Amino acid sequence: MTDPIKISVLGASGRMGRMLLKAVMENTGTILVGATEQDGHNWIGQDVGKITLGKENGIIVSNQPRDVVLKSQAIIDFTHPTVSIQYSTLAAQARIVHVIGTTGFSNSQLNKIGLAAQHATIIRAGNMSLGVNLLTILTKSVAKALGEEYDIEILEMHHNRKIDAPSGTALMLGEAAASGRKISLNSPADKSIFDLKAERKKGSIGFASLRGGDVVGEHDVIFSSMGERIILRHVATDRMIFARGAIAAAIWGVGKVPGEYDMTDVLAL
User: Fold this and answer.
1) Which of the residues 98, 140, 158, 191 is marked catalytic?
2) 162 included as an active-site residue
3) CATH of the domain at 229
4) Which one of 32, 47, 108, 136 has the fewest CB atoms closer than 10 angstroms to its CB?
């Protein structure tokens, strides 16, 4: 029988952090060995099992990520770009798996992740769900099949506390559409609703972002031409799908050579 994979959750108190803790503890193929939070957080020093499930499990929330990383085979974080970069460096030093669900990275930050991936197995995705990654494949295929007479708009909606826009998933879908058309995605400055005072540039890929309530995640890829529209859609109603996907990525990554991977690798799409 294979021993369970030792996983730590970094940034444990966030929405996704709590989901990840629960999912890791419930998965028979994994064992939770660590959890972290930033200095000064009221979770520091508390038993994570008692906090999340009402039953102590001996895992104490730490503000020392280096110590937690050293006892882990894989770490998972859905935190903030600047924090994830720090964690990727630690993962590289420890030669372990780092699953990144964080979004909103700049190009310079992505370059730093690339450097860390020379020594760590880094799996980064704007979305960890099977459905969204299938949507990505479909988006690329449809964009490849249709010509420039079909405008592409990517519409996304999330809860009112999400601050990056467009979402990481929307950008992932945009990259897929651009790849299908064999073009480069618009510059970051163009990633917004088109200026209604200007005529839309032929062949461009547009983005629109909505925020409200407790929406987990909704993404539409709209191909519009004269007389018809083709709409590909994914609706997430439970964040646990992202947690389960992240755990599947961590398990898959153990034993893989260092490098940058995404969920299409994990899911063999």
Assistant:
1) 158
2) yes
3) 3.30.360.10
4) 108
